[in-house]
Structure formats: C-alpha cells, structure tokens
Amino acid sequence: VEERATTAVLVVPRTAVQLLGAREVVYLVDPTQAGKFVEREVRLGDRAGDTVQVVAGIAAGDVVVVNGTFSLRAEGERRGLRTGTAADPHTAMGMSTAAPPSSSIQTANVRVTDAAFDPAILTLRMGVPARITFTRISDKTCATDVVFPAYGINRALPLNQNVVIEFTPQKSGDATFACGMGMLKGTIIVQ
To answer: Side by side, which strands form the sheet with 153-156?
Structure first.
C-alpha cells in the first residue's frame, strides 16, 4: 500500500464563475460588511459536469456566490467599478463602495456601437486614477474619436482596437465624453 499526501481540491459550480475579458472571476461574500461582495480573480482547473476546479484565487472557508453572479458583474460594469488590477485583483462591490487602496485603479470598458457608448454612464471616485478602455465595434458610427473636454483629452478610436484613456478625476460632479462631432455623448459621474 502506497501512502500519498493529499491536498484538498476546491470546486465551485460553473454558475459561480464569470468571464471579464481574459480574466475569470468569482464573487465572495465580504465578511466585514453585510451586503458587500468582493470580486476575486481565479485560475480554473478541470471541469466536470456542472462544477469546475479552482486552482488559485480562493481558499477553503471563502463564501462564494453561486447564483446571481451575472447580476453582480453587470452592476459593477454599470457603475464603472473595476478597481482590480493584476497586483490587486480584488474589487469590492455592493450598495456602498469602500475607498480602494491608494494603489488601486478604477477601470471601465466602453463599447462604441452604431449609435451609442455602452455603457453611456460611468461612476468614478474622485482622486482615484481611472483607466477607461474604449473599443469601437462598428464602422457605421460617427464616433471615430472620443473627446473628454473637462480633461483636455481627444483620442482616435480605430475600428476593433482597444484605446486606453487614463486620468484622475479631481472634482466631484458630472463630466461628459463625446464623439468628435458631439452627436454621441456619455456621462462620467464623479463622487
């Protein structure tokens, strides 16, 4: 009889995992604040039926949300809450958002369609660096560039290419972004 050391294998239902670009994430219940969740990047292993092995990113005892993760992801995107980075892949989400560590960067992805910026409203925190990635997915739009008048930013939007715009919101209130012709508009709400 051969003895082998065994290690616990963590598995979660496939419904717990969401894909954000190239990242796979799960949402954990934040044990420090009721009604809040933490977005955690994970590395997945073998899949079997309705479950998937989690190789890295969570630990035994973490409480993983298994139903409603699409709604959590959508709410985070709607509110422009993507503060996770490669160095800090944890994003707090919920009815109120805790201030991020000083090294955090707020991120959002905006698709440029035939007739709109999607999403057209982004909520950002004042004093926290922001990185917004625009991707123009239509050749039938006037938005071949994007302008942020309040920040002095004007960038071309080549078709099917990610264009990253970085700035730090310095005052609360609303600011606009628009196509160069001013026909398509979006709003940044700085809190």
So the answer is: 121-124, 185-190, 173-179, 145-148, 153-156
Residue linked to tokens 């800090």: 88
Select from 92, 133, 135 the least CA-distant residue to 113.
Answer: 135
Taking the mean position of all CA atoms in its chain, how far away is CA 156? 23
Q: Which amino acid is at 103?
A: S
Q: Please tell me the pTM assigned to this model.
A: 0.48
13 within 8 A of 66, measured Cβ to Cβ: yes
Question: Both tokens of residue 21?
Answer: 């670009």
Q: Tens-of-pLDDT digits for all 191 residues of the chain?
A: 444 455 567 888 888 888 877 788 888 887 777 777 788 888 888 888 888 888 888 887 778 887 777 777 776 666 655 544 333 334 444 423 333 333 478 888 999 999 999 999 988 888 888 889 999 999 999 899 999 998 899 999 999 999 999 888 888 889 999 998 889 999 998 88
Question: What are residue 73's phi and psi, to 5 degrees?
Answer: -60, -45
Pairing outcome for strands 162-167 and 130-136: antiparallel
Pick the closest to residue 17 from 46, 51, 49 (CA basis).
51
d(Cα 106, Cα 139) in Å, to the nearest integer? 28
Token output for 86? 């490669």
